[in-house]
Amino acid sequence: MSALRVRVDGVVPRQPSELQAADTPLGRARVARGWSQDKVVRALVLLAEHWGWQIASEASLRVYMSDWERGVRRPNETYRVLLSSLYRTTPAELGLTVQRRESAMDELLARVNDLAAVVERLTTALGTVRGASA
C-alpha cells in the first residue's frame, strides 16, 4: 500500500484554535462539552423545532449566544428552558437565574436612599461654604 501524499500550494492553513468563551457559567458549560457557538445555535434551533417552538433566526441566535455568554444580555424564559435542556442542567448552574423582582426593587430603593443621603450631605456642605464666604 502506498502512502498518501498531499501537496499544498501556498500557505498551509492553520488548525482551528481552541474553543474560547467568556468566563461565565454559560460559557464554561459550552467549552466543557467541546461545543462551538455555532453548534449550540444549531442545536437550539433543532430542539425548538422538535418542540414546535418559534425562536429567533440562526443569525440572531449567534449574536444572542455571544451576548448571553458575556453577560451583556439575559436570555428570556424560552431560551433559559432551551439552554438548560440542551446542557442538561439547571438555569442556576448556567448562571441564568432571574433576580426576584422584589429583591431588585429593594436594591434600587437602597441605592436611591444612598444617593439622597449624598445629595443632603453635599447640600449641607455647600450651605456651609456659602455661609463662610459671605
Task: Summarize the structure in words.
The chain is mainly α. It has two domains: 25-87, no CATH class; 99-134. Helix content is 60%, strand content 0%. The N and C termini lie far apart (103 Å). This is XRE family transcriptional regulator.
Work out the helicity level: 55-70%
Class from helix and strand fractions:
mainly alpha
Radius of gyration: 26 Å
**Total strand count, please?**
0
Any low-confidence stretches, pLDDT <50, length ≥5? none
Which percent band covers the strand fraction?
under 5%
The biggest sheet amounts to:
none
Count of individual helical segments:
5
Question: What overall form do the CA principal axes indicate?
Answer: elongated
Listing every helix as H and every strand as E from the N terminus to the C terminus, the arrangement reads HHHHH
Helices and strands in order, then pairings?
Layout: H1 25-32, H2 37-51, H3 58-70, H4 77-87, H5 101-133
Which key phrases capture this entry?
5 helices; 2 domains; mainly alpha; 134 residues; XRE family transcriptional regulator
Task: Write a brief structural summary.
It contains 5 helices and no strands.
